[in-house]
């Protein structure tokens, strides 16, 4: 299993505000790109649970598709990070 955590500011590791759910935005873009992720219910994290039989080629393709999904979601994530409700009440 692998996970990707989302923060509003990488430098300070400031999290997104309550209810902003950046990981759900990326999961939706990822699904449209053909990669299923699990948006965790307790943290701003997308998790991946590929089958044990996955090939290197399939891993490379999944990473490329997920990268395209991140690129597509970036404008929405930046808008969330800059929104007035951006301050998290704690760390993730």
Key descriptive features of the protein:
92 residues; three-stranded antiparallel β-sheet; 41% helix; single chain; Aspartate Aminotransferase, domain 1; 2 helices
Architecture overview:
The chain has 92 residues and is an alpha+beta fold. Strand 2 (38-39) and strand 3 (45-48) form a beta hairpin. 41% of the residues lie in helices and 11% in strands. Strands 1-3-2 form a three-stranded antiparallel sheet, covered by helices on one side. It is built from two helices and three strands; from the N terminus they run βαββα. It has one domain: Alpha-Beta Complex (Aspartate Aminotransferase, domain 1). The longest helix is centred in the C-terminal third of the chain and has 27 residues, at 56-82.
Mean pLDDT: 91
The number of helices is 2
CATH architecture name: Alpha-Beta Complex
Q: Provide the structure class.
A: alpha+beta
Terminal residue distance: 19 Å
In a few lines, what is going on in this structure?
With 92 residues, this protein is an alpha+beta fold. It has helices spanning 22-32, 56-82, and strands at 2-5, 38-39, 45-48.
Topology:
Layout lengths: L1 E4 L16 H11 L5 E2 L5 E4 L7 H27 L10
Antiparallel strand pairs: 1-3, 2-3
Helix pairs in contact: 1-2
